[in-house]
Each structure stands twice: as structure tokens, then as C-alpha cells.
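Methods — Computational structure assignment.
A single polypeptide chain was analysed. Its primary sequence is given first, followed by the predicted tertiary structure written as C-alpha cells.
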Amino acid sequence: MNAVVQMPLGGGRAMSQPAVLAAQHVEPTQFLTFMLGGEVFAIGILAIKEIIEHRSPTEVPMMPTCVRGVINLRGAVVPVMDLLARFNKPSSPITKRSCIVIVEMALGDERHVIGVAVDAVNEVLEIAAADIEPAPTFGARIRGEFIQGMGKVRGKFVILLDVNRVLSIDELADLAASATEEAADQGG
């Protein structure tokens, strides 16, 4: 595991003395990095439950196109999302390195477990708060609200995803309802 923990040395954005002191006392956050369509993304490690070998999900009718189906994970039904489809991009082919990252997120008092299909898992990195820039306001190839920030790692940016927005249960339910309405309109 390569840890990347750096404090900016004056040449970056100007920070007030209290802000510098506050940034120095914030613990670096760990992120699981993975590949999707040739780009590096990351999710905070606290949301990751486990990583499993890719398996073909069972398709469920009337689900949004980004939900590939469900898998049986030790007796529990877990939906599997294709993030590339969620970002309105073509899906990647399944390879030996493809896997499913099992993510647990809280929605109110409830906990939801969702599988995320990824091309390959890279590593766990520590990224200091000072090395996280805000999401770009334009030019991003995915919706801005899906991006928690841009982590600076070894001179490159890693897209830090906001799992509560990307995997939003409410938005997925709305997408499923739209798919059901569309199917009804085409059938009748």
C-alpha cells in the first residue's frame, strides 16, 4: 500500500495561518482507488464492505439500465450497479481484473448494501485534506454532484466519488419508475 500524505509548500493556494494549522491536524482519509473506462476513481474506505470476484448478476426487469441485476452475497440480495452506465458511458468488457466492490451506505436509519462493478481495483491510498480540491464546476465528464472532490496523488488527479449521490437509492427508484412508465407506454 502506497501512502500519499503531503502538505502544500507555499506555492499552492494561499491559506491563512488558522487554516494551515487546521489542515495539519486533520487526519488523512483512506480511499480505495479503482479503474473505470480508463480513468482512476476512488471511494472512501469507510464505505467499502468488501471486494469480490466479478460474477454475472441476475437481471431484474424494469430496473434502470445502470443496475445490471442482483447477486447473492451470503444469502443477501445485493443490487449491482455499472458506474459507467450511471455516468452515461458505454460499459467496459469483463476481464480477469473486473470485480465488484461491495459498498455500504446509510440512508436515514437504514443501511443499504450495493455492489459496484469496476474494471480493476488499484490500491488503498491516504490523501490528506490539503490535497483534495473541490469538484470542477464545468468540463467534468460526469455529473458534478457525483464528485466529492479531486484528490492530488503523485502529480495526477483521482476523482473522489460521493457514494451517497452516485448510489442514491431515491434517484435509482425514480429511474426505475421512469423505466416502468416507458415500458408501459411502449406496450400499450
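Note: The mean pLDDT is 79.
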